[in-house]
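Entry 14. Ran structure prediction on the chain below.
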Amino acid sequence: MDRRSFLFGLGAASLTVLSATSRAAPQMDSSRMPASGGAPDMPRGSPHYERLLVLVELKGGNDGLNMVVPYADPRYAALRPRLGLKREQVLPLSEAAGLHNALEPLLPLWRDRQLAVVQGVGYPDPDLSHFRSIDIWETASGAHETRSDGWLARAFAKAPVPAAFAADGVVLGAADMGPFEGPGSRAIALANADQFLRQARLAQPGGEAARANPALAHLLKVEQDVSTAANHLAGAASASPLKTAFPGGPFGQAVKTACQLVASNAGVACLRITLNGFDTHQNQAGAQAGLLRQLGEGLAALRAGLAESGRWNDTLVMTYAEFGRRPKENQSGGTDHGTAAPHFVLGGRVAGGLYGAEPALDRLDGNGNLPFAVDFRQLYATALDNWWGIPSRDILGGRFASLPLLA
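Output, structure tokens:
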């Protein structure tokens, strides 16, 4: 344990507080908190952090070809004689592509043109290692470049989140900081708000846990400001009931906590929610269908919860994963690590539709993988340049054209 991070042990649940620099955590300023329906007020001319960014991580590498299905391409059926979905098993988006039928809860978003499907997202010279590829995605580095700081940490260092916000970002469903890791970021990993509140009573300076452990007492003293912000967030989430019905399971609970945090108006610039289990090397059909059902129900509930609190029009949701899967099914009823894949962008201001390019199943590389059509950093540039109003070039290490995803 050091001053960059510490973990409150909560059994299966945990809360991690990260203070990557000596910059003090913001103190809550009640004079700048709105009565309802929005984040803390932003000074004129500053980045638009009143606009929320929500990242949804599909951990393990989602099989994009069976999520957004090129059902009209005969090569798809040839590559997947067992795993391939038939025309009657998909929800058509166009004459060429359709959604896996487990994603039916997203159809209202599609009909309302609040769901954009960006096909062929990847990067040059892709790496097929889970650890290396997710590091590339979360640091926005090139395939042959290593960075230790996440792309959001760099954004917050360049354009700090206002002092009225309880935290820069909150991580739900995982303990790693991912894109928040690094100097300039105050990010909190919150697995369960109620359990954290109970534990926090013992883990404050002067509490029983601190008296029994001088090292912990020192860390807690150093990080007291960030801990106070975390306590505020957890309390705000627990005190913000919503009428929206949320799905069960860990992902549904994470979505519920996210909506409660936003409804509390405590002030958070970005949330990351993780759905685990997409490394489907075997028996993929049932496993992925279950995961996509959780994803569809969770995203639909996220929309409903944020709409209830008046924040849906000020929210941009983006999915991401370390990679897609190989087009050809394997011998175990699954798919192996691949490259480009489709991703979803949702929100009240999203210009819904199909973007990117259809899977080029006639142009697979020497390993049988797809070429990419959209660099993932173009999605990040869209969030930075067009959503928050932060110049992306220095943050992303180059110029990446944003996508016309916002209405």
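The domain at 55-396 is CATH 3.40.720 (Alkaline Phosphatase, subunit A). Will compare against last week's run tomorrow.
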